[in-house]
Design a protein that fits this description.
The chain is of the alpha/beta class and about 650 residues long. The chain has 30 helices and eleven strands. The strands form two sheets. Strands 1-4-3-2-5-6-7 form a seven-stranded mixed beta sheet, sandwiched between helices. A four-stranded antiparallel beta sheet has the order 8-11-9-10. Strand 5, helix 22 and strand 6 form a beta-alpha-beta unit. Helix 5 packs antiparallel against helix 14. The chain is elongated, with a radius of gyration of 30 Å. The relative contact order is 0.08.
Amino acid sequence: MGIAGDIALIIVAAFFGGLIARRLGLPLILGYIAAGVVVGPKTGGLTVGSAHEIELLAEIGIALLLFAIGLHFPIDELRPVKRIAFLGTPLQILLTLLFGYGVASLFGFGWLEAVWFGALISLSSTAVVLKTLQEQGVMNTLSSRVMIGMLVVQDLAAIPFLVLLPELRNLQKGLPELGLSALEAAAFVAGMAIFGSRVFPWLMERVARWNSRELFLIAVAAVGLGVGYATYYVGLSFAFGAFIAGIVLSRSDYSHQALADIAPLRDVFAMLFFVSVGMLLDPAFVWHHVPLVAAAVLLVFVGKGAILAGVTRVFGYVNIAPFAVGLGMFQVGEFSFLLAQAGASSGALSEKMYSTSLTVAVLTMAFTPLAARTAPVLYGLWRRRFPATEPAMKVELPEGELREHVVVVGCGRVGTFVSRMLRRLDQLFVVLDIDPQKVEAAREEGLPVVYGDATSGEVLEAVGIEDARLAVVTVPDVIGARLAVQRIRSLNPGVRIVARSASVEELEELGRLGVYEAVQPEFEAGIELARQALVQLGIDAGEIQRFSDTVRRELYAPMARRGGSGMLPQLRRASQLIETEWVSVPEGSFLAGSTIGELGVRGRTGASIVALVRGEDVITNPGPGERLCPGDMLAVLGTPEQRASFVELARSPV
């Protein structure tokens, strides 16, 4: 069947590979790469017939993946990391190139192959890093922005490598070509800045007006892949052009719908890329050169990872960022495949060096998701072994003594909103964040803010965590939130902690760490949408409230189950058992026309009426002489069984 049969075989193999990986609790990337090894042309059995054509399709997968990331990450989000991107990345590439030169020389390769090997390992895999960040749910963290900024510059660095490396013996010929490529790149970026800011929004608006979902999807794909092809035509990277298109389109009002529509197409083609990576692995070569391959992979992992972590630290990023960057970007990238092919075709690389480079690239890509998972563990061990003694912090506390106050961790959009509400309610609070730009924005707004790391005991002591009444952890970073909760709990075991959760699994972990309450944004948005829908359908307000409370209990059940022992978990479980429920008094109800005392509600049901809403009036703790009327809304306190008994009584006819 040709290419159609190859694609069918790859999709089936990737499905089973992903299924097994998920079953074993491993990242999907590992399953896809393993599937590629199984169906690859260098493995016996059922294999693809045209690996080259699959590689061409895989390039579309990389382009769509980067296009989607560009849509997700507007250029404004990358500006804070421009210094490490444009200054730190060249330094990292140079240091890694020198390190790779030393490694290849140690293995007995000549100077020319050693330079090529250093260049090959200096670039990281944009596709693998972004896929790993997505699977871990940490795309919005500072560490992820650092990695994306560095990856963009690394992708640009592939251009001079492709021009200069084949001309190492005659640099006078390569330098003019490099200058021409630089001019073409500058012209293209300038053209995109004008064309993208004016034409793309106009085009997407016209297509959206036709109200055709299919045409809109095609328009989105055409923009991403079309710009990618244009960059390829002028001598730049196809995938890089798609990334630039995504960034430009992210400023459009239609970026969110574009991202939603392109996601399934992106995932399928990205899967082809990871399978094609596995197809490059030659099991026979690995078997016959186990010492060489093992040593090369280990040295790249340790050496390149240390260089990345060191550069990150030198440019002022502390806490978990060096660990996350080093363990997330140590792999050899997809552009290294192009470099290796160029080196082999020009005669600069021997068959042994070519196979070694490809094998190191594939294996380091495969190990990346597992290595990235260890970042929070290693950071936790590092913090316990080397606690922060002199954290970088700038303290501007509110006047007066900090006691019985609220500590808000994170001054992003959520943290700022919480802080504004606390200020309107005249509550004493202080905000804490490690991002200088967010701290400056909060300071301009007049919020009491401290620049510092919420995982540092000294910083938390500076904001008076020992005497705080409440801590609100709003940071979206899963790892940072956990570490902050652990440190807050260690300094003040009695403080109540309300935290933001990124997933159901995170709810369980936060409950285990002793968080009093957690909020999952997607859950809350879904509940509110459902509530509004029921209001529009004319459902009784009491029924809507009961429905909302029931669904919320079910959604947050994982946290309750993992609450552990102690006073806080007991209070949480008690609050879930004894809740307030709103019940309406319908026409003809047994309750209508009688006083609370005459009804003997407490004796009949065990529940208590703690509030009454009648029209515009709100009566708290109504006495036994309060007479109930049809249409009254009653706040009933009790266990689920007691409240259910009261609801049955309210629905009983006279």
